[in-house]
Write a structure and sequence with these properties.
The protein has 85 residues and is an alpha+beta fold. The protein contains two helices and three strands; from the N terminus they run E-H-H-E-E. The chain has one domain. The longest helix has 17 residues.
Length: 85
């Protein structure tokens, strides 16, 4: 399995693991942007694990679309089916 690890806000875990986007609109929009960007690079983008780092971080991998400090976790995504070309 080919994986991609991203440090993202911890409160995104339900949305990324289970597709439960019942959070605030700003978080949901940021998650949609991260997913769109990943799917542009990879054929698959499925969250398979979350490892709580317990760190409050100002800079994380979603900072471009969600520029807020947050408790963060390490999210591991299955990207096995990479797009060719």
């Amino acid at each position: 399995m080919r994986t991609l690890e991203l440090t993202l806000p911890s409160h995104w875990a339900c949305a990324l693991m289970y597709g439960d986007e019942t959070g605030d609109a700003e978080s949901d929009n940021a998650i949609d942007a991260i997913t769109r960007d990943a799917l542009a690079q990879y054929e698959t983008f499925h969250c398979v694990d979350v490892q709580d780092s317990g760190e409050f971080m100002r800079w994380h991998d979603a900072h471009d679309v969600f520029p807020y400090a947050s408790d963060c976790a390490r999210f591991i995504f299955d990207v096995t089916k990479a797009k060719k070309g």
